[in-house]
Write a structure and sequence with these properties.
two-stranded antiparallel sheet, about 60% helix, elongated, 10 helices, about 210 residues
């Protein structure tokens, strides 16, 4: 058991949130007590377990009354702790990646106009970055396209792509362990949402 102040007065003096007297409370618990209200932590736990609905109601009412101050405090905390914020987002992203990707794919499917407008706005605001990305992709395609391949066959595949479908590289050009070629037999039609989910995955991992 961690070493704690033995009285509430001592706990207040040293700034501890809890203290431990070693004596039982009025309900017989020998446990820590909260400095703020002198309440036994076991009594507090039992009350919370037995009054879940009331506790949730009180919490919602408190949050509603203090919505703006809590939001401002959270914004200030984030400003003061950028490293912790980044770590939280990375952990959340890792734990919810599949769900996030699915939600994003569904949103893109239902809002193609908004996605197109957002992409156009981003490209206009980041012209240099967009040009660099396009140049890099074109370079990857050139490198992955053998000199002997029938370029007109590849062009026909893109020209005949059905509306709402994407031309996908079966073995991705930037695979984790293997990179595919830009050749007709490595191209397929996929629904936009499926292509976005597939990303750079190998066929057996999709």
């Amino acid at each position: 058991m961690e070493k704690l102040p033995k009285s509430r007065t001592e706990a207040k003096a040293v700034g501890s949130s809890r203290y431990f007297t070693g004596r039982p409370c009025k309900r017989g618990h020998i446990a820590f007590r909260w400095t703020a209200g002198a309440l036994c932590t076991e009594c507090n736990r039992e009350w919370l377990e037995n009054n879940r609905d009331l506790r949730l109601t009180i919490t919602r009412q408190y949050n509603q009354r203090n919505k703006e101050p809590k939001a401002e405090a959270l914004r200030e905390w984030r400003k003061q702790n950028p490293g912790k914020v980044r770590a939280q987002w990375r952990r959340h992203d890792a734990e919810n990646r599949e769900k996030r990707n699915l939600n994003a794919a569904n949103f893109r499917r239902k809002n193609p106009g908004r996605i197109k407008a957002a992409n156009s706005k981003y490209r206009r605001s980041h012209m240099a970055k967009s040009r660099a990305w396009c140049a890099a992709r074109k370079a990857r395609i050139r490198q992955a396209m053998p000199s002997w391949v029938d370029a007109s066959a590849i062009m026909r595949i893109y020209q005949e792509c059905p509306p709402g479908m994407h031309v996908d590289h079966i073995v991705p050009l930037r695979g984790k362990n293997v990179s595919g070629l830009h050749v007709p037999w490595n191209l397929q039609y996929l629904a936009a949402i499926e292509n976005q989910r597939k990303n750079n995955k190998m066929p057996e991992n999709f």
